[in-house]
């Protein structure tokens, strides 16, 4: 319980920071939704990074390393360390410039203007909002799990989730984007510092990680965890498409609009891979250690191994401080809630006449109302889905793959003049259709799922190995569906755009000003 | 395409390809510092390479026209 009290103190600190941001802010929409585009380079780096570090990154990665070994770092972290900063470099900087020039607060506003169509914006809004919900739910689940583990069960899952939901809701409600940014920056620093401390303390308590690694290597059952034997080359390759999701994540896009200057992006893209290393290496390594310490945990059970290690190997107060650091990552769900609130208030309420009719002040309060609605709905979903799927699985299937497959839409909007609303619509429908089909296939093949480490099973005998079922996912010829979803989406975008009329000359000139025109300015 | 952009694009493609270290698949020795199997330390080094790649892009391919637009 002592460690849980430390976590509560931390939650109080986070709340204070959020409320302090409220006192610093104004009630304008620019301030509430994008912090008046005022974040400097360091806060911007920590905020953008913190936005992506969620319960999935910490609890999910260590749980997965427990099941599948060191390959999880290469599978998820190192590819993200290249693709995400590359995305921020190519896409984020341009979105920032467009936001500053045209006053955009969401990517949907840009898509509507770019393709001269309200409908395509509404379709993309609906699709991306639906895909964001699981991401927020994961944060709530992570909060519930963390508090339950740290309190030894005294704070039940439902109460832990409720506490996290209320704290996040309050500082987002009052502080808006500035509150989210400051809290994210604080949380990222905390996690980087305390993650390193956790690593050292657990190592000392266990007599050094080298002993653990030697024990793992000496046991034929656990030796494969030190290799990539439990990850197929096809999966390893196709997984590198997942970080493309950063290109279309609304919270990432909106966060890119908060930078004060475009030069703020420089530090972010260079340091991002190093930050990923600092967070993921301890998480993956502790998953391995847990495999030696607590053998035999099943898929869903292994999500909290990092917390088990903390409580078993560190002093209660230290465990509490480190638990607070984990909570820091778990609560990165704040930026998703903020993004959803921004989207609802800008892309729906303001776009369909709310801004003109009720004014800017009401729109900001509408954004705050959405914060409450999203937090409550997500919390209820987290309660209902608690025993359904592992955190990681839920995120991958319904969030990451879909956003990654929408990356061609963003690329086409920014870099291909000839792209059209019909191309974007075709790509969006392709992605939505694929996700529905894969959801069905995942459920249909559930009884066939092999145990971790066992070979995949063909789902339809008549189709040979076209659709296969692994312990966690459905694959297509061994490759993750996200790869085919991306290719299909790019193809839809290209072919349908070429078959349909191009946007007007005025629109193309607006978003792709000729070099001469730029120089005249 | 300008030579500089071509070279940087080729460099990024090479770095992306280097992620697929199939030769480390089933090796768990030698352990670096007695801790990191080859499949792990290779990817730790890869994270460093990614940071270096981004530094090169910032140095040689920064979208300076966005700064000009900002100033305008």
Explain what you see.
The complex is a heterodimer of chains A (521) and B (72). Helices cover 74% and strands 2% of the residues of chain A. By secondary structure, chain A is mostly helical. A 3-stranded antiparallel beta sheet of chain A has the order 1-2-3, with helices on one face. The longest helix of chain A is centred in the last third of the chain and has 52 residues, at 333-384. The termini of chain A are far apart. In chain A, 59% of the residues are buried. Chain B has 72 residues and is mainly α. Chain B has one domain (3-71). Chain B contains 3 helices and no strands. Chain B has helices at 3-18, 38-60, 64-71. In chain B, α1 packs antiparallel against α2. The model of chain B has no long low-confidence stretch (mean pLDDT 90). The interface between A and B is large, with 48 and 42 residues.
Find the structural class of chain A using helix and strand composition: mainly alpha
Work out the radius of gyration of chain B. Answer: 17 Å
Total number of beta strands of chain B? 0
Overall shape of chain B: it is: elongated
3D shape of chain A: globular
**Assembly of the depicted chains:** heterodimer
Low-confidence segments of chain B: none
Number of domains of chain A: 1
The tally of beta strands of chain A, per DSSP, is: 3
| CATH class value of chain A | Mainly Alpha
Largest interface: A-B, 48 and 42 residues
Q: How many structural domains does the protein architecture of chain B include? A: 1
The radius of gyration of chain A is 23 Å
**Which percent range fits the helix content of chain A?**
over 70%
The named CATH superfamily of chain A: Sodium/glucose cotransporter
């Amino acid at each position: 319980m002592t460690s849980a009290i430390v976590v509560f103190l931390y939650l109080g600190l986070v709340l204070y920071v959020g409320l302090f941001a409220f006192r610093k802010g104004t009630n304008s929409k620019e301030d509430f939704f994008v912090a008046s585009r005022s974040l400097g380079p360091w806060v911007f780096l920590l905020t953008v990074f913190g936005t992506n570090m969620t319960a999935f990154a910490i609890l999910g990665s260590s749980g997965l390393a427990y099941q599948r070994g060191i390959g999880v770092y290469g599978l998820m972290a190192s590819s993200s360390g290249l693709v995400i900063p590359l995305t921020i470099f190519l896409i984020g900087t341009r979105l920032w410039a467009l936001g500053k020039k045209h006053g955009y607060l969401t990517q949907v506003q840009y898509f509507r203007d770019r393709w001269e169509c309200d409908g395509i914006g509404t379709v993309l809004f609906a699709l991306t909002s639906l895909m964001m919900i699981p991401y927020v739910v994961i944060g709530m689940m992570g909060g519930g799990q963390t508090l339950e583990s740290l309190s030894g069960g005294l704070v039940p899952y439902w109460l832990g989730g409720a506490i996290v939901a209320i704290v996040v809701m309050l500082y987002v409600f009052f502080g808006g984007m500035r509150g989210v940014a400051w809290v994210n920056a604080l949380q990222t620093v905390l996690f980087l510092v305390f993650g390193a401390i956790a690593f050292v303390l657990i190592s000392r308590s266990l007599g050094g990680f080298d002993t653990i690694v030697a024990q793992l290597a000496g046991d034929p059952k656990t030796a494969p965890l030190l290799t990539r034997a439990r990850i197929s080359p096809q999966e390893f390759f196709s997984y590198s498409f997942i970080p493309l999701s950063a290109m279309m994540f609304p919270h990432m896009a909106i966060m890119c609009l908060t930078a004060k200057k475009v030069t703020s992006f420089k530090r972010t893209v260079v340091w991002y891979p190093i930050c990923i290393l600092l967070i993921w290496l301890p998480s993956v390594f502790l998953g391995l250690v847990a495999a030696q310490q607590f053998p035999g945990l099943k898929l869903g059970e292994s999500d909290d191994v990092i917390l088990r290690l903390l409580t078993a190997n560190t002093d209660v107060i230290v465990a509490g401080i480190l638990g607070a650091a984990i909570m820091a990552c778990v609560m990165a769900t704040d930026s998703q809630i903020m993004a959803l609130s921004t989207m609802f208030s800008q892309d729906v309420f303001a776009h369909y006449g709310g801004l003109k009719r009720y004014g800017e002040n009401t729109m900001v309060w509408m954004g705050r109302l959405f914060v409450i609605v999203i937090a409550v709905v997500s919390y209820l979903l987290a309660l209902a889905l608690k025993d359904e799927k592992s955190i990681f699985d839920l995120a991958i299937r319904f969030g990451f793959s879909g956003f990654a497959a929408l990356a061609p839409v963003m690329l086409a909007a920014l870099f291909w003049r000839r792209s059209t609303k019909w191309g974007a619509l075709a790509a969006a429908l392709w992605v939505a259709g694929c996700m529905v089909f894969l959801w069905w296939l995942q459920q249909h093949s559930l009884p066939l799922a092999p145990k971790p480490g066992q070979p995949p099973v063909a789902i339809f005998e008549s189709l040979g190995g076209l659709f296969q079922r692994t312990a966690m996912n459905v694959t297509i010829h061994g490759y993750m569906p996200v790869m085919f979803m991306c290719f299909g989406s790019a193809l839809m975008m290209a072919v349908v755009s070429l078959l349909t009329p191009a946007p007007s000359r005025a629109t193309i000139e607006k978003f792709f000003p000729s070099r001469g025109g730029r120089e005249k300015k | 395409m300008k030579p500089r952009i071509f070279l940087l694009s080729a460099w990024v493609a090479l770095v992306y390809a280097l992620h697929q270290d199939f030769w480390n698949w089933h090796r768990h020795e030698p352990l670096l510092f007695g801790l990191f199997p080859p499949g792990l330390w290779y990817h730790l080094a890869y994270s460093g390479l990614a940071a270096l790649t981004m530094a090169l892009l910032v140095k040689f391919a920064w979208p300076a026209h966005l700064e000009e637009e900002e100033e305008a």
